[in-house]
Write a structure and sequence with these properties.
By secondary structure, this protein is an alpha+beta fold. Helix content is about 20%, strand content about 40%. A hairpin with a 2-residue loop joins strand 9 and strand 10 (about 170-175).
Length: about 300
């Protein structure tokens, strides 16, 4: 990794903890002679942080390293900024679970120093691209690190839709929608829908129905190189919305096609020395702990 002279700090809807961590890190970086950048829209929330506040387009063009301080949502937002540039991304957990933001607050300075000195492990994560091909003409597209989600447009109504993989018909579904997740996103929305946990190095995609109407409609794991197509079955009031990592992409109407395929670019996540994915799972999911300890 080339020498890093500019580091961008990203927080979203920052609480005091994230702001405090950003301020401490900004002072540390300045002492090391590294320029500190931050998104202009966060200037008010990060008023106590000494940084140069820039528009997003300038920020990602100038930063050699991006540090996301917050929860997994913050890292996903930062991932959207750097997804097509290859800028390495380090996540500091100031949220709740933190499957992606794996640096603890007390380790932030040591971990950033490791990143600046090239001692972090680089983890290339695949991205998905979603395209809504509208029957009326035109295409909407978006990238996702975690998942592409198709969700019903009206509360209390099921939607019927078909899935196709690599041009082959798979199933007709009735339910609340569908999650198409990378291995990275297998521990997010797909997990809450009953999907499996996938080791991040595997090049696969999880296709998980949301609240399916039939018990036989189960999650499946397919090749990460597959092209997945979703079409709504034409029913009265049959509408759905599509999101990429929680960001709205657009509506899907009968006659439209949602096509999900691997993106050409990958995201570079940095992990501090000693990172262990299975230790992370044990920590976040409380694995390996007894229900109670017998009295001494």
């Amino acid at each position: 990794m080339p020498p890093i002279h500019r580091c961008a700090l990203v927080t979203r809807f920052a609480d005091a903890r994230a702001t405090d961590s950003a301020a401490v890190l900004a002072r540390h970086l300045a002492a090391r002679g590294v320029a500190v950048l931050a998104p202009a829209e966060e200037a008010e929330r990060l008023a106590g942080v000494e940084a140069e506040f820039l528009p997003e387009s300038s920020l990602v063009a100038q930063a050699g390293l991006v540090v996301a301080i917050g929860g997994d949502g913050t890292l996903l937002y930062a991932a959207g900024l750097v997804a097509q540039r290859g800028t390495p991304l380090l996540g500091v957990n100031r949220g709740r679970l933190g499957f992606l933001t794996d640096v603890l607050p007390e380790d932030i300075l040591a971990s950033v120093d490791a990143a600046l000195e090239g001692r972090c492990a680089e983890d290339q994560r695949p991205l998905l691209i979603a395209e809504i091909h509208c029957a009326s003409g035109g295409t909407l597209s978006g990238l996702a690190l975690n998942d592409i989600v198709l969700q019903k447009g009206q509360s209390g109504h099921l939607i019927d839709f078909e899935t196709w993989i690599d041009g082959r018909f798979v199933n007709t579904h009735g339910g609340d929608g569908l999650v198409v997740a990378t291995a990275t996103g297998s521990t997010a929305y797909a997990l809450s829908c009953g999907g499996p946990i996938i080791e991040p190095s595997l090049d696969v995609v999880v296709v998980t129905p949301i609240c399916p109407h039939t018990l036989s409609d189960r999650p499946i794991v397919v090749s990460g190189r597959a092209s997945i197509e979703v079409r709504l079955v034409d029913r009265p009031d049959s509408t759905a919305s599509v999101t990429c990592d929680g960001r709205a992409l657009g509506a899907l109407e009968p006659g439209d096609r949602l096509v999900i395929r691997p993106a050409a670019s990958r995201l570079t996540l940095l992990h501090p020395p000693g990172y262990d994915y299975y230790r992370l799972l044990r920590s976040k999911l409380n694995w390996g702990r007894r229900a109670f300890d017998p009295p001494a």
